[in-house]
């Protein structure tokens, strides 16, 4: 199982959550810190154990300062399908690489981690004692050791069929833990200002990582809502900016989204959310603006555009219109008034978004957004395309039995030219996604059918 020619092998212990998002996050972060994810990496699908080849321990540590999909990383000293294979692998590991961590002045401890099985204390001690052939010269310190080593055993993914012996056993030196605690510390439940569609904290950080957000970047969200995505980017040191068509949301006015609270308080707004986490210095501004008519001079302003557009389910899809666009039968509005009640087809919204990103992103900047799809009709050809943007990843999150949303990550690879603005209309990708303009109707038709089915089964 060794990687040919690999000098620095690391074992990554992944979280068993958001499985589809894990690989793109690790790839993006390795790319951000100067590493590279190659086809020779050993990943095991849904398995939490991944073997990576990383150029240096510094890159490994930087990776763990950002990832919310990985729990821990270890410098891999040995790996086998059985204890005998593991011991043989450890005996072949260069002693000069072990010595700096095993000398007599050092302290250490050895931990056991098992996946899909629980060991007794007696079994754990037996496994540790079997490693006495390693040249440990330091003292054991269980409370504050200088070095931590781990035996990690993989008993597969089926909790109903746990094997007697592990499929794989690993031994390595612990390097660092990931940022899983951010999911709890930034939980929407504890947030000062929330809305009906505030993004889950874990997914917000995953989106920022997919977007390769880094210190001093400028990150923009054209459908900012209550600013959850801005918070994740600001946590990583980026300056954040956003717009939204809803005046009340931008200004923190109107009815509250929290249970048992009727109206929003005087200081419930996006700036207050960033202040709550000590991130106010990264807040540039949020404006009331229509994403379909961006009021920007031509130029490249943003390092990343990260957003969750409305799907028409809990938030309506709207754009501003003009007198000429007002449907017949409605009373004429005053000349000074522009109505905000015109429908905004999903396909139009996403192609406007791609055009906007192509125009305003720096070269190499990333667009990260959610694309809602009706699962029975979905094909990869439906993902919107743009000549200036390259598709990096496409991950699914199921919403129901018949709907899901895809987290799309794209990178700007070509400078925008005026002729690029409409070239996507000629693409094979344009017509297929137009069918999803009726996503809302299809979503609720599925809900209606499910309710009818449940009522029928209850009557029988």
Characterization of this structure:
This protein has a seven-stranded mixed sheet. A seven-stranded mixed sheet has the order 10-9-8-11-14-16-15. A two-stranded antiparallel ribbon has the order 12-13. 36% of the residues are buried. It contains 13 helices and 16 strands. It folds into two domains: 8-178, 2-Layer Sandwich (VC0802-like), CATH 3.30.2130.30; 182-318 and 339-439, Rossmann fold. The N and C termini lie far apart (56 Å). The protein is an alpha/beta fold and 460 residues long. Helix 1 packs across helix 7 and helix 7 (201-210) packs across helix 8 (228-235).
CATH class of the largest domain: Alpha Beta
Global morphology: elongated
Number of helices: 13
Q: What is the H/E string?
A: EHEHEHHEHEEEHHEHEHHEEEEHEEEHH
Q: What gyration radius follows from the Cα positions, in whole Å?
A: 26 Å
CATH architecture of the largest domain: 3-Layer(aba) Sandwich
Mean pLDDT: 85
Q: What is the CATH homologous superfamily assignment of the largest domain? A: Vaccinia Virus protein VP39
Are there runs of 5+ residues with pLDDT below 50, and where?
Answer: 1-6, 325-335
- Main sheet makeup: 7 strands, mixed
State the share of residues found in helices, binned by percent. 25-40%
In angstroms, what separates the terminal alpha carbons? 56 Å
Task: Quote the beta fraction.
Answer: 15-25%
- The structural domain count equals 2
Order of the strands making up the biggest sheet: 2-1-3-7-6-4-5
Secondary-structure-derived class: alpha/beta
List how many beta strands DSSP finds. 16
CATH fold category name of the largest domain: Rossmann fold
